[in-house]
Amino acid sequence: MTDAAIALNRFGLGARPGDDVPGDARRWLVAQFDSFEPRPALMASAPTSRQAAQSLSEYQQFRQQVRAERREPAMVIQREPAGPRRVMDEADAAPMGDAERVAIAARRRNRDAYTSAVGLRMNAALVSPAPFVERLVHFWANHFAISADSMRAVGFAGPFEFEAIRPHVLGSFRDMLFAVEQHPAMLMYLDQAQSTGPRSMLGSRAAANGRKLGLNENLAREIMELHTLGVRAGYSQTDVTEFAKAMTGWTVGGLGRGARLAGADGRAGDFVFADRLHEPGARSIMGKSYADGGVRQASSVLDDLAAHPATAKHIATKLVRHFIADDPPPAAVARVEAAFLESRGDLPIVYRALVASPEAWAPAPAKFKTPWEWSVSTMRGLGLSELGTPQTVGLLQQLGQPTWRPGSPAGWDDIAASWAGPDAIMRRVEAAERFASRAGTEVDARARAAALFPGTLTPATAQAIARAESPGQGIALMLVAPEFMRR
Amino acid sequence: MLTRRHLVATGALGALSLGFAPRIAFAAAPTSKRFVFVIQRGAADGLGTLAPVGDPAFAPARGVLADDFATGVTLDGMFALHPALTNIAGLYRSGEGLFAHAVASPYRDRSHFDGQNVLESGGAAAYAQKDGWLNRLLAALPHEQARGIAVAATVPMALRGRIEVASYAPSALPDASDDLLARVTSLYASDPQLHGLWEQAIATRALTGDLAADNGRNAAATGALAARLIAPADGARIAMVETGGWDTHAQQRGRLAGQLRGLDAMIGALKTGLGPVWADTMVLVATEFGRTVTVNGTGGTDHGTASAAMLFGGGVKGGRVLADWPGLATASLYEGRDLRPTTSLDGFIAGATAGHFGIDPARMTAALFANAGPVKAIEGLVRA
Q1: Which of A149, A173, A143 lies closest to A161 in space, CA to CA?
Q2: Averaged over B241-260, what is the pLDDT?
Q3: Do A477 and B183 touch (CB under 8 A)?
Q4: A108, A141, A171 — which closes off a domain?
Q5: Residues A194-217 pLDDT 10s
Q6: pLDDT at residue number A87
Q7: In angstroms, what CA-CA distances link B31 with A184, B147, B233, B280?
Q8: Per-residue pLDDT averaged across A340-351, rounded?
Q9: Higher model confidence: residue B197 or residue B375?
Q10: A26, A224, B169, B382 - which has most CB atoms within 10 Å?
């Protein structure tokens, strides 16, 4: 690949017809830091986490009501001893009540919000003036993955990326980390919202009543393992537990048990600190003591995690894996890691170190595109500025990478072995043929392929396209050519 | 007389090869009945479709292939349907689905092509009969209603004969075209990674066959298309649908499940598409022969003898399994390896069509299977 092709495809999201890379490809990439829009006009009416929280709250209230109604029959029998025994169940319940209608509408709203957010994400990726930065947004959203598989998460997936990632993609890692860990999406997805200190006011009271309210280590563990230090980076189970205790009280207003029991203020979806859930006392984490200071205790831990050398190495390794090779070259990792440490996680400086790495400009395309990358570059290559929103959701589903649904907080894999499978390629071929049939005769694949891969198209691919039986078949072949499958 | 324009107006868009030379075979009353023959090419495994779980020899002989039936839901204590057949199980429960087991055509060797020829021609031996029994069934209908269609690119043997029929191949399926696939093959020829992956992709595609493709959606589309072709009052009365991919020599468990899921989706889509016409429709599902009782070394089964057939429709006297069960103990097997045929598939077809179209069983047998050796129509397959 030429430098221009690398800038467009490996760093960017694929060329669009008319895209022109000026002489200095590296400068072209870095200049995008000035043109990136955290909240482009097309996202003006994007779904928000407050809306998602409101819908989820209505849904949860209905579920509670149903549970309460299930406990009802005993009372009915007491009040009407002479009447026939009546057992209530859902099927037996009255025709759909108002609460159920509200709950169904709430659920639909959050599913619609997901679909619409996927469409906006794609739309932004297709028209953005800063495709390199858009790619970084996708990288970070996957690094801090939530999976929209449940009602709890589905409405939050889009707002999470729009509110916690986009505004910070050109800021500091520390600020992004705080925005992520205090976002309702993350607090709900990894169960932090209901984590209760065993010796907190509420934990002690529950224990006295014979109930168990306790710690949930999920978010604390994943922050250390996935978000900052990386797995096996020198922390112990005790460190995880201590961090989880420090984090108790970090919850979400208006949602779930934690905030309700704590009587926490705040509108549905706001980050709140609920002192009544917080485990009192100092915590010792990785050899350092953190005095109790309410919400500040966990913040201090997060600050230290954000600046930890293991975090720098972990982030550098993932960035190099994403932009350079499945097996990250140690020299490139060391360079990016050093930039991270020296700048205390100033992300544009980290990205500059990446762009400055000679390994990133190796001519052989080392990265096999994920379904998302292939889809975005396909549509950009065809000059499309949007795909119908449900079609975007369906396409990614068919290609094997449903957006924001990696199924685990570890996010999608970033190596070829996870994406280059026989069936995966067959699906791309099928999708390519469908795209080609929509593209009509306006696109001449012979000229387009040369433009999309400046100086890079192989004679074999050019010939296969030229010999296609129809313009449409030429487009399909272009979209599945080896050059197009990798970056 | 059906004109091209006429059939197009009923919903059959696309390439149609039409032209009728009807003659009155024997005076038949006008009928509103429809008949669909779904052929399973490649020897569908009857034991894996309708499993004789009540036979003590079944589980030991079938090994891993018996696991799909471990949930223990049986139809009648003796037989259990493959769990992928949800629509078909529903038809059984509602009394509109009937199965016949240990059935076979007169063919007793193990060649697909010869076996299919015998099944479709209704002769006693391969290539002995020049036309197909489905075409002869058309001849038994009043000539103005003797309209047949193959839901396939060409007219299969069973529908060939004196009465000309139409064919219609679904063309808007989402699979990539074969020509594109071939070009991708050469495009990837010199790419080490993509070349290997693509070879596997093509091989898998060939193995899974059309029914399993796209998770059964192709099959459902075919079923819906068949319904559109036969539902209108002036549509076809007899249709044939071809299905492939049943030759499960290796890794049968997953592949057969995919095939059956497709078949089930097709039957479901056919019934849905027909709406009220389902009451007047009969669907026969049959294959050229069955597969071996024991599992081979690659998790599959090899060519066998007797298999299972299915009959669905609003008038079918269903909720039953017809089987003169020969048993799976080694001593009971045909040539020591196959399910022994105890019921004539030809007799099953003759009895079913006679009942459905209200034609005397002996006459129907003579019309369809005059040259198939002694055939006795099985009566009582249709509700009176």
Answers
A1: A143
A2: 86
A3: yes
A4: A171
A5: 899 999 999 999 889 888 778 889
A6: 37
A7: 66, 12, 10, 9
A8: 98
A9: B375
A10: A224
Measured between alpha carbons, how far is B275 from B235 in angstroms, rounded to an integer? 15
Residues in B closer than 8 angstroms to A485, CB to CB, are 194
Do both A207 and A332 map to the same domain? yes
Q: Are residues A199 and A344 in the same domain?
A: yes
- pLDDT at site B3: 30
Q: How many domains does chain A have?
A: 3
| Residues in chain A whose Cβ is within 8 Å of chain B | 368, 416, 420-423, 425-426, 429-430, 432-434, 460-461, 464, 468-469, 473, 476-477, 480-482, 485
Chain A positions touching B184 (Cβ under 8 A) are 429, 477, 480
Judged by CB atoms closer than 8 Å, whether chains meet at A473 and B188 is answered as: no
> What's the mean pLDDT in B10-29?
35
Q: Which of A180, A96, A254 is nearest to A409 (CA)?
A: A180
How far is Cα B210 from Cα A226, in angstroms, rounded to an integer?
Answer: 43
pLDDT-based confidence at residue A71 (cuts at 50, 70, 90):
low
Residue of B nearest to A424 (CA): B201
Q: Looking at A139, A171, A203, which one is the last position of a domain? A: A171
Chain A residues touching residue B197 (CB < 8 angstroms): 420-422, 425
